[in-house]
Amino acid sequence: MLSRRDFLKLGSVTAVTATATACSVVGREVAQRDLPESLSVPTPESGGTAVNPIWRILNRAGYGPRPGDLERVTAMGMAAYVDEQLNPDAIDDPAADLIERNLSLYHMDIGQLTAQEEKDAARELIGSTIARALYSKKQLYEAMVEFWSDHFNIYLRKNQFMPFLKIIDDRDVIRPHALGKFRDLLTASAHSAAMLVYLDNVRNSKESPNENYARELMELHTLGVHAGYTQQDVQELARILTGWGVRPRGLREGRVFLNENRHDFGEKKFLDRTFPAGRGQEEIDEALDLLAAHPATAVFIATKLVRRFVADDPPASLVERVAQTFRDTDGDIKAMLRLIFLSDEFAAAPLKLKRPFTYMISALRAINTDLGRSRQIGRWLEMLGQPIFLWPTPDGYPDTSDAWAANLLPRWNFALNLVHNQIPRATPPLEKLVEVGGVDTVDGILDLFSGLVNGRSLDSETQNLFTAYVGNGPISQPETRQRLQDAVALMIASPTFQWT
Q1: Same-domain check for residues 162 and 208
Q2: pLDDT at 373
Q3: How many domains does the chain have?
């Protein structure tokens, strides 16, 4: 295999300027049939080494292209692709539909779920999340599910019941509202048993107020930490939320409700608004309305969206336009995203390092990997630093490149293990890709995979180094084939692939 010295030498010239999957066998087979009948080998004239805006949106508004995606989206154009992705219900997505349909626990109610094994619930939730990101054609939708799962972060190991509650949160809160109105998503989250348990509002009573959920509702979910609210506002919101909890038992076990015996019915003053005495859930609804409509919320959400999809240092001009769109459209998520992806700032965006989950899924997608039931994928995510739903603090996994830039060696190891079939049940069909690509020389194969992995042809210096390493022997020779696999692994581990 490729030595560390060779790996570092080749990697230096490819730099740019800057658990188990629970998917059904049928769903996977449908996804694998999507491989196009032929693949194009990139040429300098068709893209060269310049940043391709289509390549950028495939990598940022989703989890990277599968073979044939770049050509398809190039033909339809950026605006048409954005509109397609913003209307996921109109996308024919048989593989993802079959995967969801074949989940065993995901469709159960809380009473049925709590009779299951906690570990089985966690595995199915994590596995289905991986499978959907990998196989779904609704790539922007899946990216937004991840975005909001971070925004409304819930730690899966909070207690023994959290895997059951998080399944319902994923199914009934995040996914139905990922591309809807922010107010609806905020309300759904406030009615999430998983959220109220995770942030301790189930312990919030008039006798013993708990400010945890109230504080994070303002700091992380709506206004942002610099919005100018006070500790008194936190305390008053906590009073508004007293008694808002989860039924622990009975026919309505796991349902969110207002326990009037624990609720503070006194007058409150929150964000300069007086909340009259004697009210219950209606004052909770009013507080959510006030937070969703607050000008600071528009700026906070706009900043996070622009940071995720455009730049670690969000351009102020774009943030303001997105915030204005939030205000003009009552928090319409689709309208904000369309503005972002068709903006000049997105077209000229600086490079951004893929987060570990995106890196792993985009690597699997680039070489059309078939992923069966393998706990190794979940373990690889742990080694890469981003196991799903396991960020313990409520701020969610970080969005900036500096948070991930120090943990790159596991990415190299993942690429090498993937391409050399060392990850059980993860099967990249390299020979099939070569066959479909119609190439039979070392240079042709290198260029084919450069197109699949990096969306462009190799520059001459890198091509020469790869060719010198692989040699010019017949591709039927085991040593040549192994070195070609090394080359593909290097492309996946290179800065060109990781920074998009």
Answers
A1: no
A2: 79
A3: 2
200: left (phi over 0), alpha (psi -120 to 50) or beta: left
Handedness of CA 452, 54, 359, 362 (dihedral sign): negative
pLDDT at 21: 38
CA angle (71 as vertex; 401, 339 as ends), nearest 5: 50
Q: Is the pLDDT reported for residue 41 higher than 70?
A: no
Residue that is last in its domain, among 271, 293, 315: 293
Structure tokens at 469: 């390493």
pLDDT reading at 289 higher than 70: yes
Show the tokens assigned to 412: 């190299």
According to DSSP H, which parts of 180-273 are helical?
182-190, 193-198, 212-216, 231-240
Q: What is the pLDDT of residue 10?
A: 52
Q: How many residues does the chain have?
A: 500
In this structure, are 391 and 281 located in the same domain? Answer: no
Cα–Cα distance, 196 to 208 (Å, whole number) = 16
Q: Which amino acid is at 46?
A: S
pTM, full prediction: 0.91
Q: How many CB atoms lie within 10 A of CB 299?
A: 21
The reply to whether 278 falls in a domain is yes
Question: How many Å apart are CA 24 and CA 373, to the nearest integer?
Answer: 9
Q: Which segments of 310-408 does DSSP mark as H helices, in order?
A: 316-328, 333-341, 344-347, 356-366, 375-384
Q: Is the pLDDT of residue 169 over 50?
A: yes
Whether residues 205 and 99 share a domain: the answer is no
| Strand spans (E) along 122-247 | 244-246
- Residue ranges making up the domain that contains 286: 181-222+228-293
